[in-house]
Amino acid sequence: MFIVNVEGAIHRDGKWLLILRSEKEEHAGGQLSLVGGKCDIEGVSSDILERTLQREIFEEVGCEVTGIRYVNSASFVTDSGVHVIDIVFLCQHHSGEPYAKSVDEVDKVVWLTTPQILELPEMPSYLMKNISMADKMLKEKDTARL
User: Can you tell me where the transmembrane regions are (predicted)?
Assistant: First the structure.
């Protein structure tokens, strides 16, 4: 069995919203990451990934997003041996100024540009990959408008 986790690559004004995960978190505590969380068991349901993403973003950082688009998916195993499927979505910030709303999960919110994220030596490689892919999607969308 897998846990299903969703994350949002939230973009606003040329920057990405990242959180510094609380040290209390079982997985990746004290690291920068995208905002997101686990899907709850709902039985028969539709749009569960998108609704979970919106709920988790609001619960953790107090903002709303729109324009949710699939970026990529991966699997990993936590330090405690839990198998996780992780799905990343590109999102546009819609409303609310993000802050560390869920203090048990989030120590701090930061806005960084793509180059800033890619240049930080302590940045996890999977986060750099997800931001690179989301950034490429944004650029392709902008090019398509021309």
Answer: none
